[in-house]
Amino acid sequence: MLRIAVPNKGSLSEPASAMLHEAGYRQRKDRRELVLVDAENEVEFFFLRPRDIAVYVGSGKLDIGITGRDLLLDSGSPAEEILQLGFAGSTFRYATRPGTAKDVSEFGGMTIATSFAGLVTQHLADNGVDASVVHLDGAVETAIQLGVAQIIADVVETGTTLRNAGLEIIGEPILKSEAVVIRGTGAPDDDPKVRQFLRRMQGVLVARRYVMMDYDIRVEHVEKAVDLTPGLESPTVSPLHHEGWVAVRSMVPSKDAQRIMDELYDLGARAILTTGIHACRL
């Protein structure tokens, strides 16, 4: 069986399980379950702490896993990302009191507090900065107030928490993270079970980004309509019973669907419908 690590809690857990369910895999009904066997799909799921997943996958104990890019890089584990999943996006940045420093080049001799010590240590080394790193578990914004550090490095969404603590974001982002599928760096590239898993997950990603659009239009306007709805390869065009009219079916990006419908209507299209896509293979 393919052995897959899945986050058991936190911001990664529910979106990961939802995506796996959409991909046709069984998921646990009881959050206390640590292992779930999906015999029909020949997969065994292990529900682990998100921070531990890269370690298990990198050691070869598990075949692949779902975790955050930040957690993967912070672990230092011999694992690599093989698919971006598009959820749990975050930005990892430095912050400090106004006037302390402007960017990482000014951190020399200072102390940085963070929950991602491995990631920050590597970033400092990459920038040739000699600074100390203190590892804390959560609520790192209080480290400056308590005199533990002059700088913090943390996940930033809106920046409201930092501003409320009297801090400002400085420098360029250390990292932009999201949920990713990972495997060990020494794992074979041609494992058919891994390829099948990735196809399923990619199918979910496409299904989430696109809708199917159907509409009727006069023959003389087909070319302009097809320019608006080119599809992934080309749209399906079928003659209707009424002469001079055709039916068109095409996949369009869901974020553009309303605008495209307006433009098609102005072009003369009628009976314009959009339907969700539950799964696909490209």
TrEMBL record:
It holds the Pfam family HisG_C. Pathway: Amino-acid biosynthesis; L-histidine biosynthesis; L-histidine from 5-phospho-alpha-D-ribose 1-diphosphate: step 1/9. Residues 49-203 form the ATP phosphoribosyltransferase catalytic domain. Feedback inhibited by histidine. It is found in: Cytoplasm. Residues 207-278 form the Histidine biosynthesis HisG C-terminal domain. One of its GO terms (molecular function) is ATP phosphoribosyltransferase activity. GO terms for cellular component: cytoplasm. Catalyzes the condensation of ATP and 5-phosphoribose 1-diphosphate to form N'-(5'-phosphoribosyl)-ATP (PR-ATP). Has a crucial role in the pathway because the rate of histidine biosynthesis seems to be controlled primarily by regulation of HisG enzymatic activity. This is ATP phosphoribosyltransferase. The lineage of its organism: Bacteria, Bacillati, Actinomycetota, Actinomycetes, Kitasatosporales. The gene is hisG.
